[in-house]
């Protein structure tokens, strides 16, 4: 292996804050003048990122690359696991679909191939970068899986990386989770842990200090930092576990009510994030018909199993409520990717790409039929859309395994460089497109919201935030916070010791 300095971030559990802290270190090292790359050997997520060459990686590594100021490549996440149905996932290797596999088959049959892919991808990064920030997954203390895991301590040993263990204090039991994780590690792996970071702290640090002192004395591991909770940090999440925070938000109702349908296999849920920063929007994730109410905007997001999620809407009664609101002209309905496919007349899956069902009737709101195909479209895209009498430049990305065909004479919503995409009815009651990131385009989002305000007899909002600018500022805000609250000097010292002295070999 080349001598790029690695640092690995592992957690006591999923959603402990590994991705965000890895993003922070990517930004910090880049600010300090080091050419830095993120790396996650194996990622399980339905929130994807498309690279410039049209390949697919986990969204977190794409965002971390942006924080580091470098172009994302598939080497930064060589294996991506995308659950399609219970106990089965699509395996994406080096950015392209490899196979659909059951969990047991993946573990038994893919291990050696996966290890080879990981070793080669990391080797290419190590030859091209000075620092590599490695993110683990879940917990390194999954004793039932550790003999064939491909993402935590095996990777740390492979590249001789020091490990920082992160725990989320919001979950409660932070010292028990840290101590328990350390005790379940093999002795050589426990030695690899250079310290811990406690994440999302709120309150008086003096009240926590006795626990910090006890922990250091009991384990012999330093507390490298206590990172406070950072509100309004708009950095893309990739794990749908984060959605419980959105659902748990309580706030005063605002002029525009946005309902996002959360079906079981929701993907690319961050498409809705820009609405959270709008001063006149309330955003709700909805799973049952009684939660729907009468929103101004209903968003059907992406899905990793369009047919099964469409049937979920039908069986729960959500489809009936959505169609009723649409027919009454009460709610503007937008479908993205899988949600877009649901709005047509039929969705067919003759090759069993996502589901054993051959075909399911759609919601019938667009004169279109969709056929799922084995070939996956992954591409960055840009074009010009027509909406509310305006022509607007749009940028986004596509990730889908389907082809949608419209009846003759239908005008598309957006004209891309090489084709047309999407549909918006003349009355602007329903809109659909394969383009993810639609609402991240500030001008389009602002126009849409002012259109919804006009329908309610409200004046346009004069000034709105730029989500693009807020997201970029978030990288610096995060890096500044970690600089203030984490012992970067000790981390730097330990990183160099591991690489120069062969510590942990």
TrEMBL record:
In this protein, which residues make up the domain named CobB/CobQ-like glutamine amidotransferase?
257-444
HAMAP family in the record? CobQ
The name on file for this protein is: Cobyric acid synthase
Record family assignment: Belongs to the CobB/CobQ family. CobQ subfamily.
Q: Which Pfam families match?
A: CbiA, GATase_3
Where the record annotates domain CobQ/CobB/MinD/ParA nucleotide binding, the positions are 7-233
Q: Mind telling me which InterPro entries this protein's record contains?
A: Class_I_gatase-like, CobQ/CobB/MinD/ParA_Nub-bd_dom, CobQ_GATase1, CobQ_N, CobQ_synth, GATase_3, P-loop_NTPase
Domain of life from the UniProt record: Bacteria
Role summary: Catalyzes amidations at positions B, D, E, and G on adenosylcobyrinic A,C-diamide. NH(2) groups are provided by glutamine, and one molecule of ATP is hydrogenolyzed for each amidation.
* Signal peptide from the UniProt entry: none
Q: Which Gene3D superfamilies match?
A: 3.40.50.880, P-loop containing nucleotide triphosphate hydrolases
- Listed GO biological process terms: cobalamin biosynthetic process
A molecular function annotated in GO for this UniProt entry is: ABC-type vitamin B12 transporter activity
Q: Which residues are the active-site ones?
A: 337, 436
Q: Identify the metabolic or biological route this protein is part of.
A: Cofactor biosynthesis; adenosylcobalamin biosynthesis
Sorted alphabetically, which keywords does the UniProt record give?
Cobalamin biosynthesis, Glutamine amidotransferase
